[in-house]
């Protein structure tokens, strides 16, 4: 009987050891989302934009970007007379013919949001390290025969801006570490869901530039994680093409 209990104890210890080894192996294999995003930033070359002024055109307007370790300044110029400036410390300002004008708070929020949106997508994945961003790793999946890491992004209310309730998915290629697909849901203006496919990849001084095909699903009841499968089955509607042209450096 003593030998029986000894054998049982041995088997229990062995099973616990196997369980812990398998669990530890899984933990080691699952990427840390912070580390993965940092590697993607390097793969995109977005770690090289600090201290540079970049300009580009989007839908007949000129946009400018400056960022260093503590400051960013986003600028939108319309018809050479209206200049919208978004500063992370000083906030939003509008200038007409070089002179500042007073705006109602609601209009300032609207213009600030539209400027921020364009520059946000232009800087991906660098902005995924903003202080209000919360990252979660959701595993891998296959999209069009390639394997991708799935990152879920949500935002803290404090520092998350007017759109802190938005939710994003980023699909990062396991080989190149580039973001080839992304999706997001938003609540403003009645809410919506979008899926974007990157195309026209090119580099400017090692910085990866890419445009997007912008799609929407047939219903707002669709989950973000189901969008890649719908995309592969051509069940998403193409809404627009997001193209940034004439990208260049200013005084560099």
From TrEMBL:
InterPro entries: DUF6503. The lineage of its organism: Bacteria, Pseudomonadati, Bacteroidota, Flavobacteriia, Flavobacteriales. It holds the Pfam family DUF6503. It comes from Pukyongia salina. This is Deoxyribose-phosphate aldolase. It comes from the Bacteria.
């Amino acid at each position: 009987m003593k030998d029986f209990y000894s054998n049982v104890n041995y088997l229990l210890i062995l099973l616990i050891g196997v369980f812990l080894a398998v669990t530890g192996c899984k933990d080691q294999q699952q990427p840390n989302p912070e580390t993965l995003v940092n590697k993607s930033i390097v793969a995109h070359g977005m770690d090289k934009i600090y201290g540079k002024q970049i300009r580009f055109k989007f839908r007949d307007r000129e946009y400018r970007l400056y960022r260093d370790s503590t400051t960013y300044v986003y600028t939108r110029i319309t018809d050479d007379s209206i200049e919208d400036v978004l500063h992370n410390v000083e906030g939003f300002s509008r200038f007409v013919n070089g002179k500042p004008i007073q705006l109602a708070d609601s209009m300032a929020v609207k213009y600030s949001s539209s400027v921020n949106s364009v520059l946000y997508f232009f800087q991906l994945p660098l902005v995924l390290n903003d202080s209000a961003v919360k990252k979660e790793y959701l595993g891998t999946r296959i999209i069009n025969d390639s394997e991708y890491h799935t990152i879920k992004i949500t935002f803290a209310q404090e520092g998350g801006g007017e759109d802190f309730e938005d939710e994003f998915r980023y699909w990062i290629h396991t080989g190149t570490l580039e973001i080839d697909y992304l999706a997001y849901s938003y609540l403003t203006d009645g809410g919506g869901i979008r899926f974007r496919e990157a195309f026209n990849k090119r580099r400017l001084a090692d910085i990866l530039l890419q445009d997007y095909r912008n799609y929407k699903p047939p219903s707002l009841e669709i989950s973000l994680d189901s969008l890649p499968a719908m995309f592969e089955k051509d069940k998403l509607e193409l809404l627009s093409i997001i193209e940034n042209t004439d990208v260049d450096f200013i005084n560099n």
